[in-house]
Every structure is written in structure tokens, then in C-alpha cells.
Write a structure and sequence with these properties.
This is Xanthine dehydrogenase family protein molybdopterin-binding subunit. It comes from Sinanaerobacter chloroacetimidivorans. Keywords: Molybdenum, Oxidoreductase. GO terms for molecular function: iron ion binding; oxidoreductase activity. This protein has 754 residues and is α+β, with helices and mostly antiparallel strands. It has 18 helices and 32 strands. The strands form eight sheets. An eight-stranded mixed β-sheet has the order 3-6-1-14-11-12-13-23, with helices on both faces. A hairpin with a 5-residue loop joins β20 and β21. α15 crosses α17. The radius of gyration is 27 Å and the shape is globular. The two termini are 52 Å apart. 56% of the residues are buried.
């Protein structure tokens, strides 16, 4: 059951009225006719809840006040006894607008003549110190990388390539749309049920926005039907609280329709980029000059962190000594952006990897060999000047070698099959680290049942990748016991579970896994302490396995967990010990903020590297194409659950191919989204997918649980670029804008002439 499946007697329902304009002044809102609709209990407008919210900058009103900044922005909230009545009232709200010029792209937004989307951006409250909005512009943040000497880099370069690239905004299309329920008890306690990847962040934000003691805010998260980063921001939870407050604290549920989930809710960022690469005639990269313009939409949300993530990894996993990069988070009049699987990496990887194929063509070097020559190795440094090791970086060269074999690269990257059918292959490398706050935390509680089995309680949200199963595996391995005897609490209750920052960034195994190991060590220590008294030996002589504590030198001398979990009882009745409770906590360490002038710093604990390929068949008559194969080789450190790992990779690859081949929001000149439903917004369907090939390299990450790196997002990252490289090779034309549809290829190849 998901959030919207839960029903409560007397529950009310909220619906939102949204803006039909992307940029306009609100001159008046008339709710009189809507208020007369049967069953309507309250109507709230922006002036009734005039505060600002946000993740990095507080720049977004829950309901628009005086001005709307994107098509689909909420302007009023209606609470009724049924969704039908609430929606009827929504349709009777009359709003008078004065349209304003819309800013429709990041490049347009940074023009000195562009309309200001936020006139007071310099006055917004910063929730972190390392964000730098530029007043009187549409720039919400700028992150700079300055490494080495660009003058020397260009001097050492025999060949230089330069190109511009673009990838659009798109949607998460999670199976479950966003939903939240709120109730305010007479004692002031706020109960929220939310489809969220970040229940503890919701708890903190609700406490701050509504001036409620944090202990009085309780957030429950059932199983979540997909998130992909889209449920890491606080959106409907705030509106649900506003709605409950408006009706005296009664239970109110608000659930997005698919159309609202696509347009009103935050989406995936768009990107425009200018890339300039220099290399020697032998193919060694010497210089990279990179400008990335992130389309954060009407509000910043996580956009400043996306700009940081892009800057941190701006070159891809290559050794380049001289790097100049500006990564800008730019306001536009598009729906605002939030986290999306890969956290900006799929977008900038598309730019870098297309540029590398152009460079390989200019040099007359095989694209795979060019990447092998420049693959980052221990001793090299990242753009943020972190020194690579085999532990924190893995082995990209091994990934490329294995990929070369799995896709039979040596048969040729372009083969004419006759009848105007061309078969072609394209490759891409990728890397990713977390870019989480430097003090990110995770905790785990372990309790024991009287039969010796163990309950595992974590604040991690389960929304598909089987993360709690992985934690159970880690615990079972550490305790040397059957995983079937570990019972995982699947739902999250912030009053009972230990804090976990957010279930994002492919860091769950690393963070919660470390916490689980510490909790297991705590449990083992307590078992040994009590067992040592019962067995009359020192604790250091004892080991744990198969739900027993036994004497290392004589395993036949043992005592079962079930005799210890609630204390040990002697035959005469005297008892010692007490209830065995394990707890483990982990906090990120050794991370730093990036230097504002140079970008130097450590943004994450480690990078997972890998290589991907796509094989296509292109019909040169129709410009249609089929996806034949898609391959991924990633250095996972240690694969804990092979089936789950392959599933994660395959799911990510499917998403990446969707982004590369068809997924995008389209706008009219006024910034209105044109494809607001799954009838017009196309995703990859069963039957359209290729054969998936997934393999792993294992170079352990020393500080990770059993050496395992986070890989949940990585399948998506290189797919759009590998597809673009394959199709560019097949069509023998440059395809530098996503998505690549038959029409895109036709226009690039023919100039749009019939």
C-alpha cells in the first residue's frame, strides 16, 4: 500500500488550482463562486500562508503570491469532502493575470536584457553557506573550477575541438504519483504520512515553517512507488499541513494526478553547455574549458547543488591537468528542478562524451583507445583536486577492457548491413560521487526477539532498489546468521526510527551499511559480555555465529542468543545482563566544501567509475532506428547482491535510453508545457528495449561495507551519450541535442529539406 491507498473516516481532500501562465502578475483571485460549491470546507490562497520555503535558498512560496513563475504553479488550495467537489471548486476560482515575458532557456536567462524572474534574489535566506546567488540577475548559484594553467594547456594542445550541447528538462514518471496526508491533533502534534524519500527532512522543514516543536512533528512513510530523486524535496507535505490547519486540524489528503505530477511538481533539470577540449596529436588530453548552464526552472530547490555536482565531475573520469569550468544554476520560467537519478551527471556526461568522440574523429584515433589513454588512474587528480586511489576511484581501464570484449568492439563501430540499414556502436565512460552535506548522518537500531531473531530498524526509505534487503544482508554477514531470521521494519516512522539524512545519492549502502555494521558490533559486544559471565571465560575468547556465542577454542561450549537477548537467567533464578539493544550511527567524514574561487575540495567519499555502450540499427531511408544492445561495466567495489545490482543497472540503462531517445518537456513561446500527460510525453515501453549486458569489476572501497560502492544511479549516466555517439556514427552527422528522435536525425542530416 502506498500513501494514497490509506483511508481514514472523515478524511478531507485537497486539490490545487494552478497557473495557466509561465510568468504573470496576479492582479486578483476571486474565490466567492468556488466557496459556494457543496462540500467545500476551506479555500487557501498565497496571502493566507505568506512564507518562503526551499532546500538551499528559501525562494519559493507554497502558493504563489502576487506573481506566478511557471506554468502549473499552485495558486490556491481547496479542501472538500471529496476530490470531485474540491476539483469542481478549483474550476470556479477566477484569477486575473497580467502576463509577463517568459524566459524559456538558461542562455536566454543570463542575457543582460532578460526579465528578472526573482527581483529580490539577493535577499533570500540561505540554508547553507556555500551558495552564491548573483543579485539583479537570473543566476541562483555559480560554482567555479580552476585547476592548473589554461595557458599551458592550450600551448601543449595540437588539436582543439569546441561544440555546444543541450539536454532538456524531463520527468521522473515514478509509478506512484506524489501524495501526502496531514492531521493536527488538539495537543499540537502534527501527523504526516508522505510518499517521500526524505521523511526526516520533512519533519525538520514542517517544524521550521509552522513554528512547531520538532518532537511534535511525526512523519510516516509507507513503501514508496518509485522516487528517482523526485520525492526528496518537500512539496505536498507543506500543502497538506496548510490544508489541515485551514480546517481545524482534520485529516486532509492531497494526491497529484499524473498531469500535476508532471508539471506542478518539480522535474529533472535541463542543461546547455559549451565544451572546448585540447589534446596532443597522440591523443592525451591537456586542457578543458567548460561552461554549464543548469536550467533550475522557476525556483532553486536543489539546483545549486546540481551545479556543484556538475562542476565537481565536469571533465568525466579523465586525467586533465588544466581545467576551467563555470557551472551556473539559472532561473527560467520552466517548472522547477529537483534531484533526478544521476544528479546531473547524465546531462554533463552527454556533453563531455560527445566532445570526446569529436576529438577522436579529429585525431583519427579509435574512440575507445582515446578514453583508455586518458582514463583516470591512482595519483591523478579530480577537477576538485582530490588525489585518486584504487580505493576511492576503482579501475576505469579494466571497465573499458571488459566492455570492449562484451560488445565485440573490434568488429567495427559502423557496419553497412545493406538495404540502407547501418549498424553502429557508441561508447561512453562515467563517474559519480555523492555531493551530500559534509555532515550527513545515518543510524540503525537493532532489537532482539525472545527466540533469538533480530529486528532491524533504519530511517532508510524503501522505494524499489531493495536497500533494506541489502542492510539485512550486511547484518546477516556480520552476525554470521541466516538472513531469514532478520526482520526488517520496512516503513519509516520518524518517532521510532533513527535519523537518516535522505535516501538519495547512491549512498544508502555506504552510510546505512556502516551504521548497520556498528550496530552489529554493539550487539556482538553485549552478547559476548553476558555470555562471558555465563560461560565463565573472558569476552575476547568468544565468537558469534549461527545465533550462538561460543568458545573459540572449543565451539561445543556455547550459549544460544535466545538465552541472552533478555538477560541470562541462572538455574536458581538470579539474572544478569538485561535486554540486548544494538545501535549504530555513521556520519560522513573527511568531506569539505569547495573553495569558492578554485573549486578545490572533497565533495564525496569515493567515485564509482564505469563504461557503457549502445548498439543501434539505423534506417537511412526513414531515419528510424532500433536499439539492439546496451552494455554496462561498472567498478562496484564488491557486489553484495548480484541480482539486485544487475536489476539496478538495467533499470538505470532503460531510463537513460529513454532520456536519450524520446523523453523531454516541450514548451510554447510563452513557456507553457505542451506535453503534460503520458499520451504526449513518451517513455520507453516493453518491446522497444535492447538486450542488456551488465558486468562488474571489483576493486574494493576500503572504507565501505565489505568494499561495496554505491551504484544505484550509475546505469543511467552514460546511456544518453553512448546512444548519441552510436547514432552520430551511424548517420555520419553530429547529434548534439537530446532527445534524438528520427526527426532530429533527419533534420541534422538533411537540414530539414524533403
Amino acid at each position: 500500500m502506498y500513501t494514497s491507498d490509506y483511508m481514514t473516516p472523515g478524511m478531507l481532500y485537497a486539490k490545487i488550482a494552478t497557473s495557466p501562465h509561465a510568468h504573470a502578475k496576479i492582479e486578483s483571485i476571486d474565490i466567492s463562486e468556488a466557496s459556494d460549491v457543496s462540500g467545500i470546507k476551506a479555500i487557501v490562497t498565497g496571502k493566507d500562508c505568506a512564507f518562503l520555503c526551499g532546500t538551499i535558498l528559501e525562494d519559493r512560496p507554497p502558493l504563489a503570491v502576487d506573481k506566478v513563475r511557471y506554468f502549473g504553479e499552485p495558486i490556491a488550495l481547496v479542501v472538500g469532502t471529496s476530490e470531485r467537489e474540491a476539483m469542481e471548486a478549483v474550476n470556479k476560482i477566477k484569477v486575473k493575470y497580467k502576463p509577463l515575458p517568459a524566459v524559456n532557456s538558461p542562455s536566454e536567462a543570463i542575457d543582460s536584457k532578460a526579465p528578472l524572474i526573482h527581483e529580490n534574489s539577493g535577499q533570500y535566506k540561505k540554508l547553507v553557506k556555500d551558495v552564491y546567488p548573483e543579485p539583479n540577475t537570473n543566476i541562483a548559484n555559480r560554482v567555479k573550477i580552476r585547476k592548473g594553467s589554461m595557458e599551458n594547456g592550450w600551448k601543449e594542445s595540437d588539436v582543439i575541438v569546441e561544440a555546444s550541447f543541450e539536454s532538456p528538462k524531463s520527468d521522473h514518471i515514478a509509478m506512484e504519483t506524489r501524495s501526502a496526508t496531514a492531521e493536527i491533533h488538539p495537543d499540537g502534534k502534527v501527523m504526516i504520512t508522505a510518499s517521500s524519500q526524505a521523511p526526516f527532512s520533512v519533519k525538520k522543514m514542517i517544524s521550521q515553517y509552522f513554528n512547531i516543536e520538532e518532537g511534535k512533528v511525526i512523519v510516516k512513510t509507507p513503501l514508496v512507488g518509485g522516487g528517482f530523486g523526485g520525492k526528496a524535496s518537500e512539496t505536498l507535505e507543506i500543502l497538506a499541513c496548510i490544508a489541515s490547519k485551514a480546517v481545524g486540524g482534520r485529516v486532509v489528503k492531497i494526491t497529484h494526478t499524473r498531469e500535476e505530477d508532471m508539471v506542478t511538481a518539480p522535474c529533472r533539470m535541463g542543461l546547455q553547455a559549451q565544451i572546448k577540449l585540447g589534446a596532443t596529436k597522440e591523443g592525451y588530453l591537456k586542457a578543458a574549458e567548460l561552461t554549464y548552464l543548469t536550467d533550475t526552472g522557476a525556483y532553486s530547490d536543489i539546483g545549486p547543488r546540481l551545479a556543484k555536482a556538475i562542476a565537481s565531475g565536469c571533465t568525466g573520469p579523465y586525467n586533465i591537468e588544466n581545467v576551467w569550468c563555470d557551472s551556473l544554476c539559472v532561473y527560467t520560467n520552466h517548472p522547477y528542478s529537483t534531484s533526478f537519478r544521476g544528479f546531473g551527471h547524465a546531462s554533463f556526461t552527454f556533453c563531455i562524451e560527445r566532445a570526446l568522440d569529436k576529438l577522436a574523429l579529429a585525431l583519427g584515433i579509435d574512440p575507445l583507445d582515446l578514453r583508455l589513454k586518458n582514463a583516470i588512474i591512482p595519483g591523478n587528480t579530480t577537477p576538485t583536486q582530490v588525489t585518486a586511489t584504487s580505493s576511492n576511484m576503482g579501475n576505469l581501464a579494466k571497465c573499458l577492457e571488459k566492455l570492449k570484449e562484451s560488445i565485440n568492439w573490434n568488429e567495427g563501430s559502423r557496419i553497412d548491413l545493406g538495404n540502407n540499414i547501418i549498424r553502429a556502436k557508441g561508447i561512453s565512460c562515467f563517474w559519480k560521487t555523492s555531493n551530500l552535506p559534509t555532515n550527513s548522518i545515518s543510524g540503525v537500531f537493532l532489537t532482539c526477539n525472545s527466540d533469538g531473531s533480530i529486528n532491524l530498524n533504519s530511517g532508510v526509505v524503501e522505494y524499489g532498489p531493495g536497500m533494506k534487503t541489502t542492510l539485512a544482508q550486511i547484518l546477516a554477514e556480520k552476525m554470521k546468521m541466516n538472513i531469514d531470521r532478520i526482520y526488517v521494519i520496512m516503513e519509516v516512522d520518524t518517532q521510532a526510527a533513527p535519523d537518516h539524512l535522505k535516501t538519495v545519492a547512491s549512498m544508502t549502502t555506504y552510510m546505512a551499511g556502516r551504521a548497520t555494521l556498528r550496530a552489529a558490533e554493539d550487539l556482538i559486544s553485549q552478547f559476548k559480555t553476558v555470555a562471558a559471565v555465563a560461560l565463565k571465560c573472558p569476552p575476547e575468547d568468544l565468537e558469534v555465529a549461527d545465533e550462538k556465542v561460543y568458545l573459540r577454542q572449543d565451539p561445543s561450549v556455547s550459549i544460544e542468543f535466545k538465552e541472552l537477548v533478555h538477560g541470562y537467567k541462572y538455574q536458581g533464578g538470579n539474572s544478569i545482563g538485561g535486554q540486548v539493544l544494538g545501535r549504530g550511527s555513521f556520519i560522513m567524514n573527511q568531506l569539505t566544501e569547495l573553495n569558492q574561487d578554485t573549486g578545490a575540495g572533497r565533495p564525496g567519499p569515493a567515485w564509482a567509475v564505469g563504461a557503457q555502450a549502445v548498439e543501434v540499427e539505423l534506417d537511412m531511408n526513414e531515419y528510424t532506428y532500433r536499439l539492439i544492445k546496451a552494455a554496462t561495466v561498472v567498478d562496484a567495489g564488491k557486489v553484495l547482491n548480484p541480482k539486485t545490482a544487475r536489476g539496478l543497472m538495467t533499470g538505470g540503462m532503460c531510463m537513460g535510453l529513454g532520456l536519450g531517445s524520446r523523453e523531454a518537456f516541450f514548451y510554447d513561446n510563452e513557456g507553457r508545457v505542451l506535453n503534460t500527460s503520458l499520451r504526449t510525453y513518451k517513455v520507453l515501453h516493453i518491446g522497444q528495449e535492447p538486450t542488456y549486458l551488465v558486468d562488474f569489476i571489483e576493486t574494493p572501497q576500503i572504507d565501505a561495507p565489505f568494499g561495496a560502492r554505491g551504484i544505484a544511479e550509475h546505469g543511467i549516466i552514460g546511456m544518453p551519450s553512448a546512444l548519441a555517439n552510436a547514432l552520430s556514427t551511424a548517420a555520419q552527422t553530429e547529434l548534439d541535442h537530446l532527445p534524438i528522435t528520427p526527426e532530429t536525425i533527419w533534420k541534422a542530416k538533411t537540414g530539414g529539406s524533403l
